[in-house]
Amino acid sequence: MQETWRTAIVSTVARLLAIVAPVLLVLTYLAGDTRPGLHVGGALAVTGAAIAGWSRRIGVGMRAGILWVPAIGFSGLVAFDLGMRPMVALVPCLASTIVGLVRGTRMGLIGTVLGSALVAAAGTAGGSAPLVVWVRHGFIMAVFTAMLVLLVSRAVARIEAAFTERRDAEAQLRAALEAAQVGTWAIDVDTRALAWDPFGGVVSELAMSSLPRTVEGLMQLVHPEDRARTVAALDAALQGANYHIETRLDLPGLGLRWLEARGRRQGHVLVGMAIDITARREEEARRGEAQETLLALARSDAAARGDLAAALRAITEAGARLLLVARCSLWRFDDSGTRLDCIELHASSGHAIKISLAADAAPTYFETLTTQRSLAVADTREDPRTRELLEVYLARNRIVALLDSPIHVGGKLTGVLCHEHVGDHPRRFSADDEDLSAALADLASRAFEAAERARAERELALAYSQLAVVTRRTEAAREDERRLIARELHDDLGQSLTAIKMGLQLAIRDGAPRERLVEAIEIADRAIATTRELSRAMRPPLLDEIGLEPALQAFVEEQERLSGVIFELSASPPPGRLAPELEIAVFRIVQEAVTNALRHAEAEHVKVSVERHDGAVELAIHDDGRGFDVEAAMARTDAAAHLGLIGMRERVRALGGLFTVSSRPTRGTEVRAEIPL
Amino acid sequence: MTRVLRVVLADDHGAVRAGLRAILQAVPDVEVVAEAADGREALAAIVAERPDVALLDIAMPEMNGLDVAARIGPASPTTRVVILSMHSNESYIAQALRQGVAGYVLKDAFSDELPVLLRTIMRGETYLSPNISRPIVASLRGRDSGDDET
To answer: What whole-number distance in Å separates Cα of residue A274 and Cα of residue A50?
Structure first.
């Protein structure tokens, strides 16, 4: 558009010149100036102007050039007419014109006016013609030259600008295509010849030269699975349909790539663009794989079955695979929260060692983890959040980039899932990567929860079965006790009373002789003793009558007497009596623990202490016997010997207290209980 | 009843045995020929003495009174066995009767019932203490038919 406008201006000026100049020449001639130089030069200039003004086939640059040439010639011929000397003045005039062309219109005009003035001055000084003639020549020259300079310089500037603009636009388009990696292609509808540049110049020249130049050749590169529909779409496009397809091409030097191509027929050519969508397609495939893996992990019941290790192994394996990292590690705080243990590590190479880190070694790192869903670090050597871990962990494992997500259980930071990129160059993780990492960490926390729940359920089941056994045994013991009491009552007390009765009957019959009555009293004494023993067996009598401390004292003394084991009892004198159920519980626990120590531990010394503190009674029974494996014993439900332990524990728990047994083989046993008042 | 009744007395409880003996000795024409503190001794005494009456405590060490009664058999066919018991347990009584004992007496009633007991069994009949025959009769009335044993 602009080009046409410039051409029009130049053409119009040239036409004006071609009309006005002959008139001026004729007028000059009629005025009596018959110099051949002036008129030949004028005719030449007019011819040039006419060509420049009316020619259809030449561009704006050529028009300006044509105008310039006769103008120069005209100036030269005028100078010839004027003799040799004015030529000297013409030189600066020409020079100034050139400067004007090169430097700009204004300078050219000034130079030309000055030059003309010099010509006039030189002519006058030479005296070869009258001043009027010199002034007239100088004036005409100045006007012509000025017009020429003006026109030509503008035209040239515009031409230059147009060329530059076109060149820039092409370069920009090229750069844009290359930057966007958009390739272009064209197919001749008649010959089916193909001209193309896939990916906007990304392909090397060598590869370009080996690309096919026909549609048929192109189709050979298309993946066999995609070939049929690609051929069909292209055929339809050659007939005029819009062309849009995603297809796989096996490109020389590049391998199998996914290309998206669009095109439209214009005249006899089908033209279009193509872009490489391999990355997008791979990303889609990767996302699909990620979804499948997450679903499979979410459905896994390994943790609920109690196999936490298998569940965590599956998660770290998935993390390494889906996020394309060399290492995926899973860390968990220990019970005290001061140490972070690597409990699972999936490493693609070498023998990776699971290590532990002090939790306070990296406060910035953990601060970030507690507040964010994930922490992505492209270069661990530069990032302030990982600086603390650089020395102790990252550098020795050559971890240069990482993507870590916190694992929360019950709202508490429990651990970290770490995706660790090993190498020398930084790696930037995407938002998708971060989402995936966080999702895997959530799965890990679910696995922890499931494992915890499974463990709690197992413990509960064990407790139930133990309780059932204890209950059964308690019932059995109670039955035994009743049987014993019944026998004592019937066989012993009953017999004694029968004997007394018979003795008294005989005494009545025989007139109450003294020996019969004494005999009856003796039998009654034995019956009383039996009764006392029976009642003592059923409940420690001192406990109710005097208190816990004397009852324990009496119990310990009796045990000492019977067993020969040395006892040491320390019982703080209680300020006032404890609740009856508490007193009997303390007494029975001491009784059970002491019985265990005597029966199983083969102890030589037994220490019993009962202390009353603020709000609680603390009792401890320690022996120096052979000890046992507490955990194994507590986990069993079958061994009768350990039911005493469970019975004690249940008794303490029922009163809201704490019960612990610590024992090691050969190191004795300590039973402790703390019962709130 | 001019003949003297020869009695073997067995009870593991010394005081009771002494009382029983005193009661028996007060009865004319009754002679305690042997005493035993457990079932084995009792059986040996019966076999040796072949008494007219064996008074056996039902609950004794070594061998209980019922087992002793079952084992006497042809060794002393004329001995009449009387079971002494603290219990009025129905199944014990039924078992005793099946063994063919001549009497079943509660110890605390022994002194009062002894004359009647001796007369009854020497006539060849069976004696049960009223305190135990009453519940047994009541129990049998309560049933349609069948065994004593449950």
So the answer is: 50
